[in-house]
Design goal:
By secondary structure, this protein is mainly α. Helix content is about 65%, strand content about 5%. α1 crosses α2.
Length: about 140
């Protein structure tokens, strides 16, 4: 899934389908599950294209569209186990006691930083840095 108009429209359609109880396709079902993780975005989706504007949500500035696309990207990596180190890190973090959604956000944070850094510098995604940073993730419960 890309950060484009087509993805934005798909997310808005899935949000509407989900809110109205209509069935979804497999990939749309994954998007719907991601939307379920973020009920704080529910009213935002009703704004249509305006939902892609960054705003304060729960004390943080977030772009619901970008956040959802990042979730879909990492969900796909986990489903395909490609790259494998992402799935390994996710299982490790959850096994160490990290909440599943928190583990997703830890991975998303690394991916997002590298993705947007490469976009700003017009460079290729640094897969080695991604693997190194993902492999260094750990969770130590209090």
């Amino acid at each position: 899934m890309d950060f484009d108009k087509e993805s934005q429209q798909r997310i808005l359609r899935v949000a509407a389908d989900k809110n109205e109880g209509r069935p979804t396709e497999e990939i749309d079902g994954r998007i719907a599950k991601i939307l379920d993780l973020h009920p704080e975005f529910d009213s935002i989706w009703e704004e249509g294209e305006m939902a892609s504007i960054p705003r304060e949500v729960n004390g943080m500035i977030v772009n619901p569209f970008v956040h959802t696309v990042l979730h879909v990207t990492i969900d796909r990596q986990l489903q395909l186990e490609d790259p494998e180190h992402v799935a390994t890190a996710y299982v490790r973090l959850v096994g160490q006691g990290m909440d599943e959604h928190e583990a997703l956000h830890a991975i998303i944070g690394i991916y997002a930083n590298l993705h947007f850094a490469k976009t700003r510098r017009d460079m290729q995604f640094d897969a080695l840095a991604y693997e190194t940073q993902i492999n260094s993730l750990s969770f130590k419960p209090n």
